[in-house]
Design a protein that fits this description.
Elements (H helix, E strand, L loop, with lengths): L3 H10 L3 H33 L4 H50 L2 H6 L2 H43 L1 H7 L3 H38 L1 H6 L3 H54 L4 H42 L21 E9 L5 E10 L4 E5 L6 H8 L7 E6 L2 E2 L5 H7 E4 L10 H5 L8 H10 L3 H5 L18 H15 L3 E5 L7 H15 L3 E5 L3 H5 L3 E6 L2 E6 L1 H7 L2 H5 L12
Parallel strand pairs: 3-8, 3-9, 6-7, 7-8
Antiparallel strand pairs: 1-2, 1-4, 4-5, 9-10
Helix pairs in contact: 2-3, 2-5, 2-10, 3-5, 5-6, 5-7, 5-10, 7-9, 7-10, 9-10, 14-16, 16-17
Length: 580
């Protein structure tokens, strides 16, 4: 019975069956030709050498040369075609995994190490590809050649065939015994490799903290500890690999000596011709490599099985947000945003939001404030439908977001993050990321609206300038303005600003807010902020605390009331103390 991991992998193979069938036919032809070569030795010894016939000798040599050339050419053709097909199959698997990762919620990424994800996408699928491209086609040829060789051995002499297989049972016992141990060793190696990847990603991203904390030596020691653990696991895996692949082959090679002894005695007795013994020994020599290769494949399949299991674990990660089939689309979105008794709980026990209701009118500016951990980030994730509420509904123009295609939701609702993400690409590519079809005129209008016109004019290559990894070639204020221009190009009905000026100094924040004011005109805007000056510009403010809405109203009303809003921005409390 096929292992469940390999059974699932067959789904990626089936679409390519016709191309694989052609590879199989070519491989069968090549193997059939190669199978005939050892038989030539019988005619060579009995007919040409012992018979003294030069014509037979020349025909046999010519046949051997032609078969060798044809087999070589067919092996190249089948190998190249199979490599291309296997690469396509493994890309489909990697693509399915990448698409699945695009569907997972923020809580998955909060709980899963980036290094572990990358290890499975690169290392595990790379190992599957190695086994598929290097071992599977060779295995097919080895199986065919092994069956053919055994058939020829039976045809040449049944008793010599039986003697040649006398050590097969102990070889298979050794193979099964060590293969079971190998899977555990491989799983440990994959985990230790992921530990190293996670460590490198984390410390490289935090290199400034490492250096300024004088922690270089300490981090080097941690790196060494993880590498030592990896090496120990690798050595343990290699030791078991050698035993599972080499020991069975070593046992089988003893059968060659037995065939020499038994076959030689029969030649001396005259019951077998010299040519038959030579042919049997030639096939015997050809039988051992396929058997050893198949035993080595057994070890390779153990590593591939572990890698498939790790890939399938990611593919089995729960997709919380599902695109509705045949969802409702909008001809025009007014921008009314409503939450009705929304509750969201994570794995921490306490809800992140509990029974939250609100209604934001089209064109209204709503500011959401509250202490850290009060649920503000959860609220933005709900509006973009990165997560769904456990209870209640989130509505856009009276339609439940779960009834609207995700593409439509994210076309009409745009987010500008506290730290906007920029790709290591040109400024133009980053600006057009959400709307790649935007014209140059659209781009220029967005740049003017964001106050970036002078900045772009001063760049050495203008829009073609590379912005660096995560936009590090730009200042924080410039990155915010790029995000404003990118959102302007999207022309959303609802704009969400998540701490839009939190990382900026007051002067830069005021400049950036000028761009935001242009962007916010005539569209619904929801701002998450700790800044009092932003809250004062709102039509209405909602105060979150302890996962609940504790206050809402105009900024002036809430400040006069002296409740949670006023306490949050009390200059003596520290929150917003720098604002005025």
């Amino acid at each position: 019975m096929l292992d469940p991991q390999f059974h699932r992998a067959l789904a990626y193979v089936v679409p390519y069956w016709h191309r694989l069938l052609l590879v199989l036919v070519i491989s069968l032809t090549s193997t059939g030709l190669a199978l005939y070569v050892p038989y030539l030795s019988r005619s060579l010894v009995d007919g040409a050498l012992l018979g003294g016939d030069g014509g037979v000798l020349r025909r046999i040599v010519l046949t051997f040369v032609l078969i060798t050339i044809a087999s070589f050419a067919l092996n190249i053709v089948s190998g190249l075609r199979y490599t291309r097909v296997s690469a396509a199959i493994l890309f489909d698997m990697r693509l399915a995994l990448y698409r699945h990762l695009q569907c997972l919620s923020p809580r998955f990424y909060a709980q899963t190490r980036l290094g572990d994800i990358m290890s499975r996408i690169n290392n595990d699928i790379g190992e599957i590809q190695r086994v598929a491209s290097e071992a599977v086609l060779a295995t097919l040829g080895n199986v065919i050649f092994l069956v053919g060789s055994l058939g020829m051995l039976i045809w040449l002499d049944v008793r010599l065939f039986v003697v040649s297989l006398c050590l097969l049972p102990p070889s298979l016992w050794a193979l099964v015994r060590y293969r079971r141990r190998l899977e555990g060793r491989v799983r440990t190696v994959r985990a230790r490799s992921a530990d190293i990847g996670s460590f490198l990603i984390e410390t490289i991203q935090g290199m400034k903290l490492v250096v300024t904390s004088n922690a270089q030596t300490r981090e080097v020691d941690r790196f060494r500890q993880r590498n030592d653990a990896f090496v120990d696991a690798l050595m343990s895996m290699q030791w078991v690999t050698y035993l599972s692949g080499g020991l069975p082959g070593l046992i089988l090679s003893g059968s060659t000596a037995i065939v020499f002894l038994y076959g030689g005695s029969r030649v001396i007795d005259g019951t077998v011709t010299m040519g038959t013994l030579v042919a049997v020994m030639a096939y015997q020599a050809r039988v051992l490599p396929p058997l050893q290769a198949l035993m080595g494949l057994y070890a390779s399949l153990a590593t591939a099985k572990v890698s498939l299991g790790r890939v399938h674990e990611l593919l089995d990660a729960n997709v919380e947000v599902v695109d509705p089939p045949g969802g409702v689309t909008f001809d025009q979105v007014r921008g009314r945003v409503t939450m009705e008794h929304v509750t969201v709980s994570f794995d921490r026990g306490e809800p992140s939001l509990e029974d939250v209701s609100m209604d934001v009118a089209p064109g209204e500016m709503l500011v959401v404030v509250g202490p850290s951990g009060s649920g503000k980030s959860t609220l933005t994730d709900l509006l973009l439908r990165l997560i769904d509420p456990d209870q209640g509904r989130v509505l856009l123009d009276g339609r439940d977001l779960r009834e609207i295609p995700l593409r439509e939701v994210r076309r009409h609702i745009a987010l500008v993050d506290q730290e906007p993400f920029l790709f290591h690409a040109t400024l133009s590519e980053n600006l057009r990321y959400a709307r790649p079809e935007a014209t140059d005129e659209d781009l220029a209008a967005a740049v003017r609206a964001a106050g970036l016109e002078g900045f772009v004019a001063g760049l050495p290559e203008g829009y073609a300038t590379q912005v660096g990894e995560r936009g590090r070639a730009l200042s924080a204020g410039e990155r915010q303005r790029v995000a404003i221009a990118r959102a302007f190009l999207m022309a959303p009905a609802v704009l969400i600003l998540d701490e839009p000026t939190a990382s900026l100094d007051p002067a830069t924040a005021r400049q950036v807010m000028t761009g935001y004011e242009v962007l916010m005109r005539a569209r619904t805007t929801i701002v998450v902020s700790h800044r009092l000056e932003l809250a004062r510009q709102a039509d209405r403010v909602i105060v979150l605390d302890g996962a609940n809405v504790v206050e809402q109203g105009s900024p002036s009303e809430l400040m006069a009331r002296g409740g949670a809003f006023a306490r949050l921005f009390d200059t003596g409390s520290g929150v917003g103390a720098t604002e005025s």
